[in-house]
Amino acid sequence: MSLIDYGRILLRRGWIVGLLAALAGVSAFLFSQTQTPIYRATQLVLIQPSRNDLGLAEATIRLINSYVVYLNSTSIAQQVIDDLRLDMTAEDLKGAATIVPDRDRLTVQIDVDLADPDVAGRAAEAWGNMLVAYRNRENQTVRQEDRINALLPDRPSIGLLRPNRTVNTLVGVLLGALVGGVIVFTLEYLESGIVRRQEDVERLEIAVLAAVPDRER
Fold it and tell me: How many CA atoms lie within 13 A of 95 on its CB side?
């Protein structure tokens, strides 16, 4: 098929693609409007050795995994609930949290995903303070030069996690356009044997015996 043929198809059936794309985009946007917004609060905890020593730095890197295990426990989640007086179970709060170590930057990242952005922020910060308090207790049993400190470099950052209405709408438009394209292709395939124009006759390689003039011309 030539570009002219594709252009004719778009002129004749392009409305199908546009209509389905518009319907799918609007449906995706309306569906996003009905979803409960979930916010993510991210708290970074900086793990800082008391001296720039290779041995202490290596020990700090190895200990980061144990900090994640310590924080990712039901007992710590319950302490956060008790401190903030939250109306939820420890398992629910633990399920809403993600704790990830970063050995290169010597940080522990705490993400809390909740419907209330203020509660999510306070929970993430309280979780970080649990690690700070834990390191403070551990440091009491070692010498000053062997201590490993934990501190919060900043307040937690909070942002909308889902739904992403823009992305959902764009995906809906693309899927609608794709379905419309499949429908147009199917219709063209089913009607490929129908002769409407002289070009169709030439494409089918049928010998033309005569041509009936259009009386309207």
Answer: 5
